[in-house]
């Protein structure tokens, strides 16, 4: 089976839950959009972000130990 065909289904309620995304590139932005559409409280940590979506907390820096404290989900 092709590696690209593998998918991990995750059926969880993200409403109001802290989700941290490390990175600010095109793929990260797609993930951020999906998380927001499910009501997640999204924090992005990256030295740069192509476009910070409305309602997202953006920490303009590299990841630091402890950044995932209290996060329900990390991407």
Write the layout of secondary structure elements.
Elements: E1 18-22, H1 26-37, E2 41-46, E3 57-60, E4 73-74
Parallel strand pairs: 1-2, 1-4, 2-3
Total helical segments: 1
N to C succession of SSEs = EHEEE
Mean pLDDT across residues:
92
What general form does the structure show? globular
User: Total number of β-strand segments?
Assistant: 4
Return the structural class. alpha/beta
Arrangement of strands in the largest sheet: 3-2-1-4
Main sheet properties = 4 strands, parallel
Termini separation (Å)?
A: 25 Å
User: Helix proportion of residues, in percent?
Assistant: 10-25%
Uncertain regions: pLDDT < 50 for 5+ in a row? none
Taken as a percent bin, the fraction of beta residues is: 15-25%
Rg, alpha carbons:
13 Å
Question: Quick gist of this model?
Answer:
The chain is of the alpha/beta class and 75 residues long.
């Amino acid at each position: 089976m092709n590696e690209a065909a593998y998918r991990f289904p995750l059926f969880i309620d993200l409403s109001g839950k802290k989700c941290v995304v490390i990175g600010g590139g095109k793929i990260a932005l797609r993930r951020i959009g999906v998380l927001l559409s499910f009501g997640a409280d999204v924090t992005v940590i990256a030295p740069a972000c192509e476009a910070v979506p409305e309602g997202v907390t953006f920490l303009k820096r590299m990841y630091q130990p402890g950044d995932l404290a209290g996060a329900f989900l990390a991407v």
